[in-house]
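Hey,
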Amino acid sequence: MKYAEVLLPLPLANTFTYRIPEAMDGLAVLYCRVVAPFGKKHYYTGIVTEIHDRCPSPPIEVKELLSLLDTQPVIEASQIAFWRWVSSYYLCALGEVYRAALPTGLKIESKSMKSGYKPKTETYVRLADHIQTAEDLHHAQERIKRAGQQERLFTAFLEMSGADKRNTVSKKVLMERADVKASVLNRLIKLGILVTEEKEVSRIDRSDRGMAAVAALSEGQEQAYTEIIRSFDKYNIALLHGNLTDGQTKIYIRLIQDALNKGLRALFLLPEIDLATQTTDQLKMVFGSKLFIYHSGISDNERVEIWKLLLQSDEPLVVLGTRSSLFLPFGRLGLIIMDEEHHTSYKQQDPAPRYHARNAAMMLARQLGAKTLLGSATPSLESYLWAKKDKYGYVMLDKDITGCLKPRIEVVNVNELRRKKLMKESLFSPLLKTRIDEALSKGEQVVIFQNRRGFAPLVACKSCGTIPRCVNCDVSLAYHKQNHRLSCHYCGYSIPFPLYCPSCSSAELKLQGYGTEQIEEEVTTLFPSVRAARLDFDTARTESVSRRILNDFEERKIQLLIGTQMVSKGLHDANVSVVGIINADALMNIPDFRAYERAFQLMCQVSGFAGGHERQGWVIVQTKQAENELLRMMRQFDYQGMAQTQLKERQQFSYPPYTRLILLILRGKNERILDEMAEVYAQRLKSKLGDCVSGPVYPPVTRLHTLYVRKIMLKIKLSLTVSDTRKILEEVQSVMQQDARFKQIIMYYDVDPQ
């Protein structure tokens, strides 16, 4: 009797043993897909991780596999090893990693038992089987000699089929070439001259139209490229500390070409691919059919086809993708490039696995013997520290290689202006208004940055102070003037704007704070003739709309763009001379130990849009903290100064990168039971791990989606291994699960939270 260990896409730690039926014996192979029953009514697509003849002990009823989906592996052994690492490091079940890794189209739906993947087919035309000789062909032509359109279609078919008349021809292309209606083809089919058949075709465009040679590097780029190559002789990981312009991409392309020349594959990671069209276009121009784009924006059928092609082919290829592309079957991987490595989008939030693509990429490269290049103009402090500690190679790209002039940054003290009544009723300082006027008069463009959407973040009653709040979450409702509603930015709960206070019935309701919608309204008042647009989640809920707004701005159809951090991700060819940061305090005052690092990165990135080769742009930063040291460093683009200051603080208070941070998150409907369980959990963890355990604490938002939230923070010493940490946490969790009250709690870990 043969048995299979099967991995299921469920939040379960172990594989499950199934009996292999006789009909499948000898056909089932390691890492193939099977349909396995689970429970009374459910069926799942499982991966066979082991085939053996060991009878389960103690003897139990072993269910039989329902069906075999493949006779060849659908994943590689190296992928299972990578999945196991993700599961171990990020404290989640292996089944959760499998569920995230495999495209949906390769998994059978539990109820319908239908595969999500549908091969694409296309209709092709060929000669009927009885037409074998030249005489048969001549006879067919004679039959349609006086039918002009039929003769034209048949002649076009013969020309397209070439010397071998048994070849098939695409129906679509044939009809376009012959320029006839479908009824003409149907007549030839009825006469028995032509027949049609369906063929499976690829959805992937592998054309090499417009391919260009790898561009020559400037002197500074050539030097950086040489240093990267040299660093790879000593290190498996290198950090390219780039600039705020686009000097790095050409270096990336040269390194990818080197990998392809060695017969290896390359993975180019971007935080959000839909807004990085310039990078995508540059890679397409050079690598053509060797480039594959993989992210959530493409159809699941396309993802399946890319997966299969990478699995079944040894061809050296390039994958340009987001974090999910790390789970593809790469085979001979030679290089991983991670652009904008500091970006928060590289961290998966929900659902599990809550992995960080940077750490995962470095481990994947290590397992496959590849090199990793991290690139950023404002690197994460983790990467910067390890590079400075000689654990990574470090290459600094000369900031002047592009010839772009650095923008001039002016910090405006909003408190002082309001005290002098120079900015009483406006969100725009006099200096910012002046710079915008000057730019628009010269035909230049302006970006206004405010990282808060909506018209106002809250509404308050003037009489009693009541603030309308979400019924599902512990947050105030933001006012959106466009639809005149109050909305929750967490769960989407929404109500019409109230005419009266729900507590005291007063009609005096006051808006407090401001978002992009209010800024847009003031822009139309101050600059009535300007062509302005807003880019935030409200105006661009789909990738195509985001890209259209950015394209319109780059094509000068829009003069002034107002937006959240969405504007920082996709601008390349705009004519921006002024950037206004409306409220720098909102970035710096976030209750997070990474707040200053993130604020510096975001403000520098937005500032990089101002100016160009022939002019110096302006960046106007409005703040109530004009003397803040971070703003002084930002004015000078002093990344090293910011890094040294922040690293010193983090070392003092035992924050990453000097410790490994793990958040244990508890959620439940009953707040009393949640508090009790959180307190017990924290005490038990403290008995094992000591002072590195903090909490339980109330997060800034204590209730989300009707569930109360508590957090316990673990600052794990780097000397404690991942396996030892996991062992301790599993022991405590096992004890907690013996308490019946714990069944009411949802608990999960967030490792390296961002």
